[in-house]
Design goal:
By secondary structure, this protein is of the alpha/beta class. The chain folds into two domains: 159 residues, Vaccinia Virus protein VP39 (Rossmann fold, 3-Layer(aba) Sandwich), CATH 3.40.50; 70 residues, rRNA adenine dimethylase, C-terminal domain (Helicase, Ruva Protein, domain 3, Orthogonal Bundle), CATH 1.10.8. The chain is 41% helix and 18% strand. The protein is built from ten helices and seven strands. A seven-stranded mixed sheet has the order 3-2-1-4-5-7-6, with helices on both faces. Helix 1 links the parallel strand 1 and strand 2. The radius of gyration is 21 Å and the shape is elongated.
Length: 251
């Protein structure tokens, strides 16, 4: 993970969840500066001992979901390229990924270890069966790449699942033309009832009549009987524009 996350002698790394510092030490060997956010106060003395040889590491005790990350990056990495590296409990990984991307932090990439099936979903491009709302959201902000898999035997105690490491290269601009709020409202609605057609799920969850949604589908060049996972990013964007226009026209 340290080798693949983008760390370099002139760049910084924001690490989330250092644990006992095994990955942190490897990052410190490669990056100019490493700042690690750790929530568990019990690990602080362990980290102090583990990372004593490294003068370029700072540990911040706090909750990554509550800290002012824009301020932290500005204070700790002035003028530096920054990459994010996270090795977290799987239940918190998606919220952390989305926070980093949605807040448009000034970072170049985000590298995380997740459950293998989650990695496959996150990397699934729109228009494929494995794609979901989070897949589409992530790929609006970044280009994901599955770097390598990590077998369950690599851990002790051994978990019941295999893992994989994914790097998200942050885009300089979205890959489609769409108003962001409308796009994500459409994505949530379209994938909100996956077994239903786009027309039915969007109508049910966005407060539009089926006739209006079918008109929007026709304008976007989409079959109203299509399902969300069949739509490309461009089709989702086109449908979001057509839906937004009809929402605005409502009395």
């Amino acid at each position: 993970m340290a080798e693949e996350c983008g760390a370099g002698p002139e760049s910084g790394v924001l690490e989330i969840g250092p644990g006992i510092g095994v990955l942190t030490a490897e990052l410190a060997k490669r990056a100019k500066r490493v700042v690690s956010i750790e929530l568990d106060t019990r690990l602080l003395p362990v980290l102090e001992e583990t990372l004593a040889p490294f003068q370029n590491v700072k540990i911040v005790n706090g909750d990554v979901m509550k800290l002012d990350l824009h301020r932290l990056l500005a204070e700790e990495f002035p003028g530096m390229r920054v990459d994010v590296c996270a090795n977290l409990p799987y239940y918190i990984t998606s919220p952390v990924i989305m926070r980093v991307l949605e807040e448009k932090l000034p970072v170049s990439s985000l590298t995380v270890m997740v459950q293998k099936e989650a990695a496959q979903r996150l990397c699934a491009p729109p228009g494929t069966r494995a794609c979901g709302a989070v897949s589409a959201a992530v790929q609006y902000y970044a280009e994901p790449k599955l770097l390598f898999e990590v077998g369950r035997g690599s851990f002790m105690p051994q978990p019941n699942v295999d893992s994989a490491v994914v790097r998200f290269s942050v885009r300089s601009a979205p890959p489609v033309e769409a108003e962001e709020r409308s796009f994500f409202a459409l994505v949530r609605a379209a994938f909100g009832q996956r077994r239903k057609t786009v027309a039915n799920s969007v109508s049910a969850l966005m407060g539009l009549s089926k006739d209006a949604v079918q008109e929007a589908c026709a304008e976007a060049g989409i079959s109203p009987t299509a399902r969300a996972e069949q739509l490309s990013m461009e089709e989702l964007a086109a449908l979001s524009r057509a839906i937004a226009a009809r929402k605005e026209a409502q009395p």
